Amino acid sequence: MISARLNSEQPLALEKVQIEFKMFKDIDAEQRMMKECIICMDEFKEEDMIDDVTCDKRHYFHSKCLSVWLKTK
């Protein structure tokens, strides 16, 4: 769960967000609507570790990018 990566100052709403950690190659081909991480704009590679936000299967990001973004926003 994402709350493990957030500090106590983060809004409580973020603690309820569920994130699945997986490799990009494990995303179903039908759900591969995004070809690049919208945080860093780098194209996904099959071996990239991603965070798949469960609120919407179209939302996935590089794990490192999402972690940094959540800590700074």
Show the helix and strand layout.
Elements: H1 12-15, E1 19-23, E2 49-53, E3 60-62, H2 63-72
Antiparallel strand pairs: 1-2, 2-3
Describe it for me?
It is a single chain. With 73 residues, the chain is of the alpha+beta class. The protein has one domain: Herpes Virus-1 (2-Layer Sandwich), CATH 3.30.40. The chain is built from 2 helices and 3 strands. Strands 1-2-3 form a 3-stranded antiparallel beta sheet. Strand 2 and strand 3 form a beta hairpin. It starts with 11 loop residues before the first helix and ends with a helix.
CATH architecture: 2-Layer Sandwich
In N-to-C order, the SSE pattern is HEEEH
Number of domains: 1
- Major sheet: arrangement of strands: 1-2-3
CATH class annotation: Alpha Beta
Give a quick set of tags describing it.
73 residues, alpha+beta, 19% helix, 3 strands, 3-stranded antiparallel beta sheet, Herpes Virus-1
Concise structural overview:
With 73 residues, this protein is of the alpha+beta class. It has helices at 12-15, 63-72; strands at residues 19-23, 49-53, 60-62.
